[in-house]
């Protein structure tokens, strides 16, 4: 039920949804309440414009990524690097039969790099599927095969393909980590996602070192950011708003610990 509600919440957290609702209601009131109609129409256009600018999307990204800290220790060989799912495009992977990544591919790339350099004895991939079909693509399995193709021995790869969200990532990981007796752990996920992910792991009794990747904050000074609307900025604003809302929901449910 929570997964279904989260998808509904995702829809209503999108600025495009807000804009469309305002425009539709504004259009419906055009004859009866022309002044209110104009106000709602302008509000809808304003929402669409503002969240499509680099200025607003960068401000939101700064808030989301501000809590992501790199606490990894260069001289330590970790028992495992925990790579959270979310970097795979399951639908495209199923369609083409090849591994197709989305914008968060740095998660698995960093895990591979750490194992290759000898900074971790194992790479632990946590990520299942929201698709209930038996033949659905399971991210952990796909990435395991990919790492083996890249030369990582199968015995150094551990997977769990049951988790469907960050809370379940932590629960399933804790079970396997306890079974294996791992002590020194390094958590890898996207910078915007790291505060919520680390909080979920802390809530189940795990406090791994953290290594955020996939940062989206630009090096451009604030005064040089563009006010020209772009579809990419609207997409980034939407993603960050969903992440920030997710933190609130997880905190209210008691799934994260500072």
Please sum up the structure shown.
The chain has two domains: 2-66 and 234-252, no CATH class; 78-213, HUPs (Rossmann fold). It is 50% helix and 11% strand. It has ten helices and five strands.
Q: Oligomerization state of this entry?
A: single chain
Here the CATH topology of the largest domain equals Rossmann fold
Q: What ranges have pLDDT less than 50 throughout 5 or more consecutive residues?
A: none
Task: Write down the secondary-structure element order.
Answer: HHHHEHHEHEHEHEH
Termini separation (Å)? Answer: 26 Å
Number of spatially distinct domains: 2
Secondary structure: helix percent: 40-55%
CATH top level of the largest domain is Alpha Beta
User: What would CATH call the homologous superfamily of the largest domain?
Assistant: HUPs
Number of strands: 5
**What can be said about the biggest beta sheet?**
5 strands, parallel
CATH architecture of the largest domain: 3-Layer(aba) Sandwich
> Structural class of the secondary elements?
alpha/beta
Gross morphology is elongated
Which characteristics define this entry?
258 residues, 2 domains, Rossmann fold, alpha/beta, 11% strand, single chain, 10 helices
Explain this structure.
The chain is an alpha/beta fold. It has two domains: 2-66 and 234-252, no CATH class; 78-213, HUPs (Rossmann fold). The chain is built from ten helices and five strands; from the N terminus they run H-H-H-H-E-H-H-E-H-E-H-E-H-E-H. A five-stranded parallel beta sheet has the order 3-2-1-4-5, sandwiched between helices. Helix 2 (15-28) runs antiparallel to helix 3, helix 4 (54-65) runs parallel beside helix 10 and helix 8 (166-180) packs across helix 9. The longest helix is centred in the C-terminal third of the chain and has 22 residues, at 231-252. It is elongated. The model has no long low-confidence stretch (mean pLDDT 94).
